[in-house]
């Protein structure tokens, strides 16, 4: 027994995995081999004596350890880290149904904070833009997404442009606190709100292009004309009461936050194209297409001559079906009320109803009467020295008498409005 004692300790602990087969084949000492190669698990003292814990840890990693776990083993003397899986995983809040079934809308909302940050403006049509739990905000984003056929990138670009435009233009102030010349815009635009029996309201804007007194006066200042049109539009948008919404509109369903537009072309010539009209109309289309998407329910062109028929045929070629289906030309304005049987009596008499004329019962933007300009002869008299007034009296009277014949003729009141605005998506 004494001669075989070193045999149990000659192999270093680091070589233990390779030494076990050698010990097993030692036929000279079967008893010692059996005790050495088959230690009982409960014999803790013998195991500790033969292979210290430190050496065992370094030489024999447990088979349960994966290579990744072995790499992450703590250094000697350090406590092992707590397993990550022991931490409770926070449950994600359930998405609203309108986001769950419309991934594009959910993506749009993910981009909204960046959009608001880049534009520095968070108001659209009187709605403070918040998050996806706010119904008015959801409805606004749905309209921009609809206008771009579900394309999130295009919707984001349009919303960004619209917010920047509202920040710069301040259209609410244009409608509430700005006044417009009666000579230029008096009698050209109105707003009416008709109530259904069930309490719902129909908002209608009226553009009376046949009321234009002078083309150059009304359309000459393009920026001023656009501001007037924007002011009228903002009055109508306010009546839609989008900020008071308590439910989200169906993306593919009916939208109650839309208006009716009526363009009256009575006594308007479509054969003469005026550059001022074309410029003002083009700018209006650009602004309205960008800043007021999906606010139009239907658009009626009334008192249009037969020659306009070609225009509506052409519109079907160049515009989408979703846009052209909203356009309705009516040759006789008195037939307009027939399109709204439940509201017929509330329409003005000129349009087939029983209500007073628009000038008597409709709303409009703030209009200021212009002061009459001083007569040319009086201005000339005031410029002359007083000492010469008497000497020139006879000549001055002669000039006044001859003025009606010699003065240049004022432009005729030609309310020509091109058909350019007809295919425009004012409120797409």
From TrEMBL:
SMART domains: SEC14 (SM00516)
A biological process term (GO) from this entry: regulation of exocytosis
CDD domains named among the record's database cross-references: SEC14
GO molecular function: metal ion binding; phosphatidylinositol transfer activity
Record-linked InterPro entries: CRAL-TRIO_dom, CRAL-TRIO_dom_sf, CRAL/TRIO_N_dom, CRAL/TRIO_N_dom_sf, Sfh5
Membrane-topology descriptor: Peripheral membrane protein
Main location: cytoplasm
Subcellular location as annotated: Cytoplasm; Endoplasmic reticulum membrane; Microsome membrane
Biased composition, class Low complexity, residue ranges: 36-67, 371-380
Protein name from the UniProt record: Phosphatidylinositol transfer protein SFH5
